[in-house]
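Section 3.1: Structural characterization of target chains.
Under the original work plan, the team committed to producing a structural model for every single-chain target entering the pipeline before any wet-lab resources were allocated. The record below documents one such target. The sequence was received from the expression subgroup and is listed exactly as submitted; it comprises 133 residues.
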Amino acid sequence: MKEADKSQQPSGSIHEESGKALFTTDLPALALELKGEESWQKSGRGSRTIFKSESMRILLNVMQAGSEIKPHQAPGPISVHVIEGRIRFNTEAEAVVLTKGQLLTLQEHVRHSVEALEETTFLLTVSPLASKA
């Protein structure tokens, strides 16, 4: 088996369905890149879509301690996987603190918010539901 050629995938690129079966992403390098961007300095947050298809989106998110993602809802089920740090994930019914290595799943259309309790990096996967035509 041949090692993936990292030069074919810049850390900040979006991979849409293109017929290619395998993509790799250097998550620590991308997190570092996000922390160098203006949005990190202004809002304390950064995000980059690293994969997008009709059935799934994967985003890498970075948050400074004390920053927040205001209440919102996703059109499909989501998962949140904490890579580094600690966040509080809030719904109207409950709140849970997630730390490095923990994973949360949430059903579609559930209003939620996220608070960074310390500097945090996490992967967000969204599976949009097919629109009813």
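The first helix runs from residue 27 to 35.
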